[in-house]
Amino acid sequence: MNTGQTMLVIGAFTLLSALTLAINGTILSSASLGYQMEANLNALSLGQSLLDEVMTRDFDEAVTNDRRVYKYSAMTPVANLGPDGIEAIGHVDSSYTGVYLSQTRFDDVDDYHNYTRKAWDTRLGWFTLKVTIAYIDETNPNNPAPNPPSWQKCITVSITNYSMPLDANGNPLVYTLKDIAVYRKYF
């Protein structure tokens, strides 16, 4: 081979190397995007499942067992939101199987206040779900109740996982789902 042919072979290998790196970068980027999308879907699914679980509970401890209240003052004060005595679970309720203590111990919406759940996914690891409960203004649900309690509670579920898309600071995004529980005192 002469010098001209050697230069062509070197140039061809250079182009092949650049093309291989570009394709590998695209595959890696695509795989990363796939994990992020899977994490997004799993996060939303787990969050909605927990939100649905909360919404199946009675509105307040004062109205469990088919009791009714007709005054705000009869409901749980803001300072007492959270599980009562034997309902307490501890710091974090976690499960590899999807069976959580909250499903059998909590009987009303406010028991979930400051509740943290860890859900295991075999591909993406642990998802962390945190719940907060707050009384909200009945005329403007985006605001806290001016004089809590009220006939409405906002349930907020925040979900995180290390595979979720990153924010500008490089931290995984926190997804938030909200719903409003309304007490229907006349039904």
What keywords describe this structure?
single chain, five-stranded mixed β-sheet, elongated, 30% helix, 187 residues, 5 strands
Describe this protein's structure:
Helices cover 30% and strands 20% of the residues. With 187 residues, the protein is of the alpha+beta class. The protein has one domain. Strands 1-2-3-4-5 form a five-stranded mixed beta sheet, with helices on one face. Strand 1, helix 2 and strand 2 form a beta-alpha-beta unit. The longest helix has 53 residues, at 3-55.
Assign an overall shape.
Answer: elongated
Low-pLDDT windows of residues = none
Mean pLDDT: 88
In whole angstroms, how far apart are the ends? 93 Å
Q: Let me know the largest β-sheet.
A: 5 strands, mixed
Strand and helix order = HEHEEEE
Query: How many domains, in number, for the residues?
Result: 1
Percent in helix: 25-40%
* Strand segment count: 5
Radius of gyration based on Cα positions: 26 Å
Strand content: 15-25%
The spatial strand order of the largest sheet comes to 1-2-3-4-5
Secondary structure blueprint with pairings:
Layout: H1 3-55, E1 93-95, H2 102-105, E2 115-121, E3 125-135, E4 152-160, E5 175-182
Parallel strand pairs: 1-2
Antiparallel strand pairs: 2-3, 3-4, 4-5
